[in-house]
């Protein structure tokens, strides 16, 4: 069945997060039949506060009219959503049919606990839905042990933001390699002592997401194929050292050791930095003249290549899944199929909500309001992107603290090798416990 779509208008966005709780096994609900009629069914959908949620809510009457089903939305703020998932999914609830969840944090936890229904045959055997249209990185992130357990709805990639005027003044081209990025940062800072050549996240946990692009592009990773830590490899050591030097060596300012994206962006927005690599979903913060004093000088580029090529993250920040214990699984899948269809994804893209479908980035109407340079960077990063920006474990928060410690030491100019050795041992111990 084909569904129509209408362009919604919603201007506010919120940052959300989900933390799930204890581990239990759940009994299965009903089987999913894609051909089952759903007229008269009430589909209970739990969503996070997000611009995607507000937009899809305005489109739902169309879905209800065409299917005869009724959609009952439960929309929750970060803490409330965390509490609900922690309690209800853990208890094997059948009160949730569709859940919006964060794959980077919850995919392994939810899937290993049996919270999420297997959608593999549904997505792979439906030519109209076209699972191959989803980019590899986000699709891999909503897969667990070769089973598709979720469908991506919101994605992010690393993009290189840069100051056009400072590059022109220095007579430099946009960096395409990490070596060129370091050289450009050094040159611009030398010419403009009050401007940092590069600024980035410095907080132990927050920095892991952006550091990952440097790690992957250097040929490193967090976890090896045998499930043990590889942050002590030569490639990882090079990435830790490079990231620390890039931030520390090309500024005269005191570096805030607790910067997340907001604080790092503020430095760039105030005209005090030449480069920053961060999420492309945040681009409007850079080009909004009410937020940025350099809004008319911001350029966008694909992430520069390291020794192993350009490998930024390309991740699904949010996804939809069917609750395994739902008694309305066929109707739940019908909702997800509609909400993540090509038509709906294009409408979301028009509003600046970036999705995982390749077709949306090839639709001129969908990308009309995006800066051309940004679209090109997104396409390149989408093709090269890795489907993670942190260790994909059950206790993600603890893992980020461990692997993030050498980042902080590197930025501070401390003994990086010693910090890596300590973190590598701690991460190995953590992975052993995490797999039990």
UniProtKB/TrEMBL annotation:
Keyword Cell division: no
CDD domains: PBP2_TMBP_like
Keyword annotations: Signal
SUPFAM superfamilies, per the entry: Periplasmic binding protein-like II
Entry-linked PROSITE patterns: PROKAR_LIPOPROTEIN
Signal sequence annotation: 1-30
InterPro entries: Bact_solute-bd_prot1, SBP
Chain coiled-coil ranges: none
One Pfam entry name: SBP_bac_1
Protein name: Sugar ABC transporter substrate-binding protein
Lineage: Bacteria, Bacillati, Actinomycetota, Actinomycetes, Micrococcales
